[in-house]
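[job 4471] stage=fold_predict status=RUNNING
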Amino acid sequence: MWGYDPGQHSRVPLLDALEAGPDGRAPRPKTAPRRPGLVPAHPDLAASRIPDDLVADCLLAWAGEWSKGYVVVDTHPGANPLTDGAMQAADLVVVPVILAAREMDALEGMLADYVAYRLLLVPNMVPGVPNRRFVERLARSAGTTPVAPPISEHRWLRRRLRRAAVTLELNPGARLKAAADEFQRVAVTVGEILGH
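[job 4471] inference complete, writing structure tokens
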């Protein structure tokens, strides 16, 4: 989505840095105008046997070397040691929540499995009139876990070709500004929880 195709590169900087350990050199985030720094994933990460504790130690060590306030470290999708290690190192884990039956089942399982982590639930792709049953289920499931302002279902975002962050567009139209405002409200909530 940010214009980085791992198939075009023979090296895997994230994997190389993880194998070197926390005392090695941090991977350099890829930068581009109006995008956050990105340490990209690669299909080879799925086959790696990097333990979650090492991932957490590396991320904590590298955070001091990265000058940007936020860096996206992309890992292989799903539950795996890379994800677990990233969660261990995180001050806050932002969890997108889809208000649908299977997704709510998965959320409830995640909340039970990750009770020791600091989480923020973000209702995502919420239709104009959300199903009341799922809204109530989210409220019950969340318990004391904070819930951020929702992100509407912006179907046009899926077809968007520009790779700049919507919150950093220089001249947004009304539709883009409405989406950016929702993302900004989530960012403000993150800052408030973290005391920034």
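[job 4471] summary: Residues 91-196 form one domain.
[job 4471] exit 0
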